[in-house]
Amino acid sequence: xxxxxxxxxxxxxxxxxxSEQIPMSKKYLNPRIHxxxxxxxxxVGIEQEILxxxxxxxxxxxxxxxxxxxxxxxxxxxxxxxxxxxxKKIEKRLRRLQRRVSRxxxxxxxxxxxxxxxxxxxxxxxxxxxxxRISNIRKNHLHQxxxxxxxxxPYRILMETxxxxxxxxxxxxxxAIAKQCLNEFKKQIKYxxxxxxxxxVEADLWYPSSKxxxxxxxxxxxxxxxxxxxxxxxxxxxxxxxxAAINLARYQLTN
Length: 255
Known about the structure:
The chain is an alpha+beta fold and 255 residues long. The protein is 38% helix and 22% strand. It is built from seven helices and 14 strands. Strands 8-7-6-11-12 form a five-stranded mixed sheet. The chain has a three-stranded antiparallel sheet with strand order 1-2-3, with no helix packed on it. The chain has a two-stranded antiparallel ribbon with strand order 4-5. A hairpin with a 5-residue loop joins strand 6 (59-64) and strand 7. It starts with a strand and ends with a helix.
């Protein structure tokens, strides 16, 4: 791939104009082109030195979930963007358009096949753009949240191992889990830790971060999902997610 000022030479395609200048580098890795429903994007990898920054002596645990995107062991919280009125309004409009296009298909049914009219194509384009808009809002929120966490400069970040496949089997929470994009959150944390030289650690899949008391260390075996406040026999009382984040921050110290 050859790069010049706001132009890129792509094999079998030729010279393509870009709206932004691609960073100049001696070597470009794995160029990829994709279409998001409105614009075409070119993504390339470049070699970059790891930034040497002064890190603190803080070990930061992060507990992710559905009620809130993330709760950190230092007490900071990252909200669930899907619960905001702005996202809910867009999703409501999306549902209306989906019902509308469904009725159009039924009206234009010919035998066993559906006919796509120009009105159907227009509505489907609106639906595609709304999906794009929601996706971009979620990705932007993830980038802002992960950047804020990394900028606190802990010397290591610890997260639990996420088994998304099994989590999605819960029919009551599967939709909410999918909207949170937890795998994307972990992916962004990982590469930003690598960029700034922060150690990233994943706790064992069966580590009882939520069930373990961060005060006395004992484990509460019967802990329901509905119990949002952790109460233990030692008298310690704390928010369930904060308790899990504190335990994750201490993971390597006790295991």
